[in-house]
């Protein structure tokens, strides 16, 4: 019980600091001091653990991956690739209802803060012919923007989860891919049931040139995925190759090229990523993870409850995608498995956290999208409740099935 209270204090302090708008890197540093104090980590051992976490190969690789992902997203925005890609999609789509879903979904392939706002104007324009309510416009833009985050390997959530649980990212993505299919299918059912069919888009005369335009708009991302899943490259190498080729393909003044690099490679995000890995190393060195394994039976009910409650509550309270992974997943390593991690347990923990993200009023995408469409959040929640419950229910059923068979 004392151990659980100590762990609760660690989580509560971190949540309070985040709620007070303290920078996450500083919050992790302060929480690391609390970990050291509660679990008897000497200043010397604390410094050694911090240095180990900062200079370890997984940390350096992770920082490189994060910076390259951010750069690719900036490259696609800076060159108007995203805008041209959406224009091509509008000509390819025959059912106008899909314009409420496809642009937001395609733009969701680009990890970025408040990314739902990129698709909101398109949804607003497409929704005019049906006179949809603000809540429904918010739902379509918001839901389809987030269908990829269960498996898309360019999202920091997936990268961090793979690193913390030590599950190869390709394997983790394959296990979680069905939930993207489920989320997309659920959204489409909601779309086709609630929006009547209409005449095709006036400019819906797509050609193979438009298909090529979509591929051109996403080629760095598509190339990265092919290199990872088909060629078997490590993610860092695949991203580095794609980033290098974007510079080869770059057309424009040298000043624009440099601006894209400078904006894409964010030192702040790189340092934050390193801070997350240092925090994980300090947790390991302090014995917190061993303590969790001693007081929580990984195969018992308490272990399953923690797998759900910890990531869900942190996600719900913070609304920050990376927070539920960075804060709770290191504590869940003993339950998921330190030596032979169980991907089904990792999947359940991830979906539990992302369920909290989807319904969190602090989630920037939800707040900004609702504000853009002037929607009442209560109306949005009434629509969101069913699809969110379906996805979480599927994760729960998957977990039970994995234990029984």
Write the layout of secondary structure elements.
Layout: H1 2-19, H2 24-38, H3 43-55, H4 57-78, H5 81-92, H6 102-107, H7 116-126, H8 134-145, H9 156-165, H10 169-194, H11 208-229, H12 235-249, H13 254-264, H14 267-286, H15 288-295, H16 301-318, H17 321-336, H18 343-359, H19 364-373, H20 377-404
Helix pairs in contact: 1-2, 2-14, 3-14, 4-9, 4-12, 4-13, 4-14, 5-11, 7-8, 7-19, 8-19, 8-20, 9-17, 10-18, 10-20, 11-12, 14-17, 15-17, 16-17, 16-18, 17-18, 18-20
Description:
- This protein is mainly α and 405 residues long.
- The radius of gyration is 22 Å and the shape is globular.
- It starts with a helix and ends with a helix.
- It is built from 20 helices and no strands.
- The model has no long low-confidence stretch (mean pLDDT 83).
- Helices cover 77% and strands 0% of the residues.
């Amino acid at each position: 019980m004392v151990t659980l209270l100590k762990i609760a204090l660690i989580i509560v302090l971190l949540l309070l600091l985040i709620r007070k708008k303290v920078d996450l890197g500083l919050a992790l540093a302060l929480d690391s001091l609390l970990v050291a104090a509660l679990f008897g980590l000497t200043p010397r051992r604390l410094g050694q653990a911090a240095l180990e976490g900062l200079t370890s190969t997984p940390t350096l690789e992770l920082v490189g991956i994060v910076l390259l992902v951010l750069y690719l997203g900036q490259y696609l925005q800076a060159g108007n690739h995203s805008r041209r890609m959406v224009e091509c999609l509008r000509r390819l789509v025959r059912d106008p209802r899909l314009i409420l879903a496809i642009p937001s979904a395609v733009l969701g392939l680009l990890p970025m803060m408040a990314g739902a706002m990129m698709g909101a104007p398109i949804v607003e324009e497409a929704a005019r012919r049906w006179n949809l309510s603000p809540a429904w416009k918010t739902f379509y833009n918001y839901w389809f923007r987030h269908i990829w985050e269960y498996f898309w390997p360019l999202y920091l959530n997936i990268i961090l989860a793979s690193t913390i649980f030590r599950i190869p990212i390709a394997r983790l993505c394959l296990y979680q891919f069905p939930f993207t299919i489920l989320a997309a299918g659920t959204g489409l059912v909601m779309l086709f049931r609630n929006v009547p069919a209409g005449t095709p888009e006036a400019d819906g005369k797509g050609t193979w040139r438009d298909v090529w335009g979509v591929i051109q708009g996403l080629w760095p991302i598509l190339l990265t995925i092919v290199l990872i899943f088909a060629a078997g490259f490590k993610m860092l190498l695949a991203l580095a190759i794609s980033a290098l080729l974007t510079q080869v393909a770059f057309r424009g003044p040298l000043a624009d090229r440099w601006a894209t690099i400078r904006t894409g490679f964010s030192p702040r995000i790189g340092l934050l990523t390193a801070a997350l890995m240092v925090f994980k190393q300090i947790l390991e060195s302090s014995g917190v993870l061993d303590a969790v394994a001693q007081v929580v039976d990984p195969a018992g009910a308490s272990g399953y409850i923690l797998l759900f409650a910890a990531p869900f509550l942190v996600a719900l309270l913070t609304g920050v995608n990376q927070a539920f992974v960075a804060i709770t997943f290191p504590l869940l390593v003993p339950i998921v498995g330190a030596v032979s991690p169980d991907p089904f347990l990792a999947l359940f923990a991830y979906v539990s956290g992302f369920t909290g993200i989807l319904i969190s009023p602090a989630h920037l995408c939800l707040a900004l999208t609702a504000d853009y469409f002037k929607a009442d959040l209560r109306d949005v929640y009434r629509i969101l409740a069913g699809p969110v419950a379906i996805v979480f229910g599927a994760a729960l059923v998957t977990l039970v099935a994995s234990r029984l068979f």
